[in-house]
Design goal:
It is a single chain. The chain is an alpha/beta fold. Helix content is 38%, strand content 23%. The strands form 3 sheets. A 6-stranded mixed sheet has the order 7-9-8-6-10-11. The chain has a 3-stranded parallel sheet with strand order 3-4-5, sandwiched between helices. β1 (11-16) and β2 form a beta hairpin. The longest helix is centred in the N-terminal third of the chain and has 17 residues, at 93-109. The radius of gyration is 20 Å and the shape is globular.
Length: 305
C-alpha cells in the first residue's frame, strides 16, 4: 500500500471492552496483538484521553451497534473530530442518530467523516453517488441487506431448523451471539434509515421505519414456498413521497425470477431507482474481509489529498 499510495501509517492506539485502553504514539506492533499477545492496558478516563495519548490522526470506530441511541459510537466520533482527527466508522448508529451533527463538525474541523462500511461492507454505496452519479435524483431503493437472515432462510430451505440456521450464521461470523437485532429487523431498519438520510437527504427517524422480522415465518412455510418456486427474503424498501420517504423492512414472498430471490448465503443486493435509470448492485458472499476493506477504502479517502 505504501508503494502504491505513498501512505505511511502506524498503529498508535487500540481499545476494546476486553483489553482496555492501549496507546503508544511511537507505534504498537500489530502482529503480536493479532496473535493474542496484548501489552498491558493503560489507565484512561475516557475516549478523549485515549485519543490524546495516541495522538490520533485517524480513528476507526467499530463498536457494536446500539440501534436505539447510536452510542457510544457517536461520542467516539465526535471526540475524534473535535481533537482534529479524521473519523471512519463501520457503525450504522451514528448515521441514523447524528449524521448531520457529525457531518457539520467534520466540515468545521476540515476533517473527513466517512462510513462506507456501514452498509454492504466494502461496496461503494455512499461514495457512488457524489462521484459516479452526480445530478441524479434517487426516488427509491429496495434490497436484501442483512446477511444473517439471508443465511438463515437459505439454511432452513435446505432442511435445517431455525436454531440450527442461527448457529450456522454464527459459525460464518455474520450473526452476533444474540441475533435479535437481525431476526427482528432492527439491523435492516437502521440500514434503510441510514441510506435514506444520506442519499435522499431526508431526516428519517428509526421509529418511522415500518419493521417486521422473520420470527413469525414457520420452517414449513419457508420450505413449502421454495418447493413451489418462490422464496422468502427480508426486503428493505424506501420510496420518496413528496418531502418524506416511506421506509419498510419485512419478509416478502418473491418469485424465483426476481433478482433478490436468487441471493444465497451472505450475499446482499440493492436496486436504486433514479430519475434517469435503475441500477442494481450485488455483493456475492462477502466475509469479514469485505468490511475491513470498506474501512481501508475510507482511510485512503481520508488521508490522500
Amino acid at each position: 500500500m505504501r508503494r502504491r499510495y505513498d501512505v505511511r501509517w502506524r498503529l498508535t492506539g487500540l481499545a476494546t471492552r476486553r483489553a482496555g485502553w492501549l496507546a503508544d504514539h511511537d507505534g504498537l506492533s500489530p502482529l503480536p496483538i493479532l496473535n493474542g499477545h496484548w501489552p498491558p492496558p493503560q489507565p484512561c478516563r475516557d475516549v478523549r484521553e485515549w485519543l490524546e495519548k495516541a495522538r490520533t490522526d485517524v480513528l476507526f470506530e467499530a463498536s457494536s451497534l446500539d440501534a436505539q441511541t447510536g452510542q457510544p459510537a457517536i461520542e467516539h466520533l465526535k471526540a475524534a473530530l473535535e481533537l482534529g482527527a479524521h473519523a471512519v466508522t463501520a457503525n450504522k448508529g451514528p448515521i441514523v442518530h447524528a449524521f448531520r451533527e457529525l457531518a457539520a463538525l467534520a466540515r468545521e474541523k476540515k476533517k473527513k467523516f466517512l462510513y462506507e462500511a456501514t452498509v454492504m461492507d466494502g461496496v461503494p454505496i455512499f461514495s457512488l453517488f457524489p462521484l459516479g452519479l452526480p445530478a441524479t435524483e434517487l426516488r427509491g431503493f429496495c434490497g436484501v441487506l442483512n446477511s444473517t437472515t439471508n443465511v438463515m432462510l437459505t439454511e432452513i430451505e435446505k432442511g435445517r431448523s431455525f436454531d440450527e440456521a442461527v448457529k450456522r450464521a454464527q459459525a460464518l461470523g455474520v450473526a452476533e451471539t444474540d441475533p435479535a437485532a437481525d431476526l427482528d429487523g432492527w439491523d435492516s431498519a437502521v440500514k434503510v434509515a441510514a441510506l435514506a438520510i444520506v442519499l435522499m437527504d431526508v431526516p428519517v427517524k428509526l421509529e418511522q421505519v415500518q419493521r417486521t422480522g422473520i420470527r413469525d415465518l414457520s420452517e414449513e412455510k419457508i420450505r413449502s414456498v421454495r418447493a413451489a418456486g418462490m422464496r422468502y427474503k427480508l426486503v428493505c424498501r424506501a420510496e420518496r413521497r413528496g418531502d418524506s420517504v416511506a421506509c419498510t423492512v419485512q419478509p416478502e414472498l418473491l418469485l424465483a425470477s426476481d433478482p433478490l430471490a436468487n441471493l444465497e448465503g451472505t450475499s446482499s443486493a440493492i436496486r436504486f431507482d433514479l430519475d434517469v435509470f435503475s441500477l442494481s448492485i450485488v455483493e456475492h458472499n462477502p466475509g469479514i474481509e469485505a468490511t475491513a476493506y470498506g474501512l481501508l477504502a475510507d482511510f485512503l479517502r481520508a488521508v490522500q489529498p
